[in-house]
Amino acid sequence: MMPPAKPLTCGARIRVEPRLIPAPGPGTPGGLLRSSVQCRTAAHGHGPHWGVLRDTAWTGGRPGWPTWTSWTGRPAGLLSVHVLPFCPHTPACSLAADHPGVCSPLLDPALSTDPGRTVEIDQALKTLTAHAQGSGGGTDEAAQAAHDAALLTWDELRARPRILDALPEGDLATVHRLIGRSGSVPVLDEAGVRTFLREVTEVTRLWGPGPRDGRRLTHGQAAEFWLGVLTGLPPDWQAAALSGRYEQILPPPGSPQRPSLAEGPGCVPFHGVLQYARRQTAAGHHPPSPVPHHEHGGYREEDRTLGADLATRLAALPYGWRADAVRRIAYGTTPLDALSEAAQAVNALRHHGIRLAWNRT
Ligand SMILES: [Zn+2]
Ligand SMILES: [Zn+2]
Ligand 2 centre and the CA of 92: distance in Å? Predict the structure, then answer.
């Protein structure tokens, strides 16, 4: 006989507006404030939702538990905060005392399905489109839309475990990065919001119509391949490739040695640079020697230093994040921007309760 299925996790979510949260005071634990709170109890049809508001695991304290009562829409003002001990019934239960439903070890971590979730995601994407075109509402509206677009998309993936289980590390890193960067969307320029929109929309296609097997983000597989090529290069070529000074390290246009993958005048895709570097390495050639600082237009010493620094920063990222960074660089983001944003996103993820291990062993 099949064992009875575990109940799914509720997963209802609300964006936290920090201005509505009382500051921790005497007897109230501090800790990292979540940017978004998700109900952790077994799926329930009614009653208040429960989720962690402050992550005190960072300070060795106990978590504070917010509860907010039956809502329609997203009135973030209804958050009320309670500081409660952990549930005493099951030693490993991560829920608060007197929580409704079963203890956490008896829960299925997959989220319950919510037909309203995809509707809210679509609405959030429309709001962000208007924001990118300069016809949207204010910053608060954009902040809520960015939260819903990234976080509810993440929730929808977790409500469809067959997709998430099959998602390779690089694609998962893209989803995580979008969550980590969602808080910055209201201050991005038009192009930045459009890129965020394009990437979230691409993730939503993971559950769209069509065959499911092997479905992943565009160029995800290619990014893993090119990451392998990049990290297989000697350090001087890695630094040259990540310096972003492509025109300065490649032979001039018209040269037979120049990669033929240009996608427009003066535009050399990153994989063209990597291909060239790989060929040069095989032939025993080094990148051009850096020219002194005052010689503008060449591959300068500070370019080499920046490239070497970015290679170190790339190596410190978890594997999937490295593949994601290479994918972004191939899309035209500068290596400096791709790696700076990755680091910011990894740190911002803590505010969403997602902790990643840096590749620092
Ligand atoms: Zn709930
Ligand atoms: Zn419990």
Answer: 8
